[in-house]
User: Which sequence fits this backbone?
């Protein structure tokens, strides 16, 4: 993410920062609840079923023809059996963040990065050039204006991931480093 930010690719850096947060939420949730790993596997099987159903219900005949009914039924049955055996439901990202005790990061950081991965009006707003309050053009070039705010998010993610890891390994050696990193980041301030 930091390399992309350095190159002025703010939206791509934001997308990678969002992915890092998702991984951190999963890591933190697994560290607090062993069933989370099972729920991630259940989520994989839910996703398989949804993808196959999308193909089966597609209006594209070539797409539907690429998947035999027998294979689709077999994969769906296999995934349903796996979900039943796991005895847990899949969890979404917000549920993982809650379980990890990181819901505040979900609400503040993760949600703010969603524009980078979903085509929304807010996402497009980042490409509009304004002059005297009027939209005068469109730009698709390196963006260094958001460098500080996204770098702060990346730093907060790394610090939180270290804190989770240090907590789980009972490593007292890492705790002073984490506290110092948090203080330094706070001293830098919010760049948004």
Assistant:
């Amino acid at each position: 993410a930091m390399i992309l930010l350095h190159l002025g690719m703010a939206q791509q850096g934001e997308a990678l920062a969002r992915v890092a947060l998702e991984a951190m939420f999963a890591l933190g949730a697994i560290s607090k609840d062993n069933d989370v790993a099972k729920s991630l596997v259940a989520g994989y099987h839910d996703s398989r079923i949804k993808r196959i159903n999308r193909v089966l219900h597609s209006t594209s005949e070539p797409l539907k023809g690429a998947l035999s009914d027998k294979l689709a039924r077999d994969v769906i049955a296999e995934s349903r059996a796996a979900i039943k055996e796991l005895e847990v439901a899949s969890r979404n990202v917000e549920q993982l963040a809650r379980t990890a005790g990181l819901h505040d990061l979900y609400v503040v950081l993760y949600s703010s990065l969603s524009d980078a991965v979903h085509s929304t009006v807010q996402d497009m707003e980042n490409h509009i050039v304004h002059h005297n309050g009027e939209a005068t053009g469109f730009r698709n070039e390196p963006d260094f204006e958001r460098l500080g705010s996204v770098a702060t998010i990346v730093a907060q993610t790394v610090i939180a991931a270290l804190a989770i890891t240090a907590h789980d390994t009972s490593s007292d050696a890492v705790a002073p480093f984490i506290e110092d990193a948090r203080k330094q980041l706070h001293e830098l301030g919010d760049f948004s």
Observations:
- The chain is about 70% helix and 5% strand.
- Strands lie at 128-131, 134-138.
